[in-house]
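Can anyone check this?
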Amino acid sequence: MVDRALRPLTSRALAPLTRTFADVSPDAITGASLVVGIGAAAAAAVGAFWVALVLWLLNRVLDGLDGEVARHERHGGTRQSDRGGYLDLMADLTVYGALTLGIAAGVTATFTGEPLAPVATTWALAALLVAAYYVNLGSYTLFAALLEKRGLGARQRGHRTSVIMPAGLVEGAETVVLISLLLAVPSLAPALFGIGASLVALTAGQRVLWASRMLRAAP
């Protein structure tokens, strides 16, 4: 919901790191972000939630940095490669899913028997959140593929991303907040999983309606 407004601020905040790592391959930074993200999921799974939170925030910095480095003049200009964009998206999807399951595992082991985090409910709501993530993914990537087929994709529309990502209720910034809260206050995981799943599902619905209108109007 606020990603577009935050993007210039993020670019400025990352500018010193972008200059420092300008000679590093953006794909290597994406790989590092994936490793750190999986580390965050593993830490959460064993109940080391504060370690997981630090690793998760580092993952988000690296996730922003790879695109900024890719768009740096030393890498050829203003747009990251399709390959880089694809790897970045796949890394994000892997980390989101792994962290959700890692948090569920850590919460159910740490808070077993406590009414705030019953095991069956926690796992069921975590599964709903993962499902909502991937329905949301399909809601815009399938549409983006159809736009590319019609010659109306990200490049033609002047987007900085490899595929069109329409605005929605939950985007990158909101996901950072959700997962950070889950790691900072893990005893509230069932409620946060449920809230997150509901909001992500609403976002998917928004994007389906948007895509339906666009495809009806497009040639």
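Reply from J.R.: I decoded it. The domain at 3-217 is CATH 1.20.120.1760 (Four Helix Bundle (Hemerythrin (Met), subunit A)).
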